[in-house]
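In this section we walk through a basic example: taking a raw amino acid sequence and producing a predicted 3D structure, encoded as discrete structure tokens. The instruction is simple. Fold the sequence below.
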Amino acid sequence: MVKKPTISSRLSVPHQIFAWFAVLCMLAGAGCAAGYSRLDRHAWEQSRFIDLTHSFGADTIVWPTEQDFRLVLQQAGETPGGYYYASNRLEMAEHGGTHIDAPIHFSKGGQTLDRVPIEHLVGAGVRIDVTAQCARDRDYLVTIQDFEQWETAHGRIPSRTIVLLDTGFAQSWPSRLRYMGTEQRGPEAVRALHFPGLHPEAATWLVRERQVKAVGIDTASIDYGQSSNFETHVTLLSRNVPVFENLSDLGDLPYRGFDVIALPMKIAGGTGGPLRIIAVLSPSR
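The resulting token sequence is shown next.
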């Protein structure tokens, strides 16, 4: 039986990528913030891609109460049929490594991971640099004033934007002590966590005043380490604003003028899941 070729099978790899991204742009209304036309194939193929994802492995950082990521070898070798075959099994927490928090994570009846609209995961991005503040205070809370100062320098944060908070803490990955503030594990370790986060009032401002699509951060939680009631999670997720956590180094991104593609594993009923997130910059960047 001859298999009928699909559209994907007739396209080269770069053209397949472009075709899918064009669809995502149209779904998300991204407008191609990086400065190229939605259908400008040459610009897309010349774009710069920045991976904002930590690799998953034995040193992946997870919440102190969670089990570590495990890649379990099942098969690896030559088969009786004369071909090589390899296969592994994954064991992992939803909220470990670079991942997404779906609304249901802190909002009863909220969207599960498979229900998060794709347009909330793709679109124009901005990077808010708070590395200096966080270097002085590892319990720093990003404030409305930080956003207002950013806007004074770089212009208003557009509505329907994906906001990425650059604390500089990704540079400490995968050291649990430097990244989390403690190497302890278990429930008692939660009280010893020290890392920056987003102030609940600033989260409310982003939702109400700038109607953001999603918020990401390069720490273990959008709430700072010493939070006990996770108000920022509640503020964002109860308004169906997904959260991206444990992002890798954001320092190579410009302040604005790039697009974000953040696609998680589509887990039915999931409260979160592993995330592959990239930034797309135009050739002029």
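Looking at the output, two observations stand out. The chain has a mean pLDDT of 90. Helices lie at 7-10, 13-28, 41-45, 131-136, 144-154, 176-180, 200-210, 231-237. In the next section we compare this with other chains.
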